[in-house]
Fold this protein.
Amino acid sequence: MFLKVTRGNGMKAEIMDFQAQVCKTFSNAERLKALNLLKAGEMTVSDITNALGTTKSSTSQHLMVMRMRGILKTRRDGTNVYYRIANEKLISACSLMQEALAQVMDSQPRG
């Protein structure tokens, strides 16, 4: 379902602006890989860094961007910060987009 944007309806335009910001956040493959890992449950920065094979600095920056956009939430336990997905609907939307893109890729000629 698409939101109907009408003149004077700032809320729906605001949601579309926010959608564009979130889609920009999803435009980075490392962030998508981290999200994919977090589907299984919360993880620390170190857990995610080890699974992705990236640097802790790079992973932390990507996680911070997603947290600032409201995609991820955190929980502190001693010195560890655990990341988790804030809203499962975002993951469903991301998975649906991946399925659609796979179909598009399959229908395109190779080479």
Remarks:
- DSSP finds five helices and three strands in the chain.
- The mean pLDDT is 89.
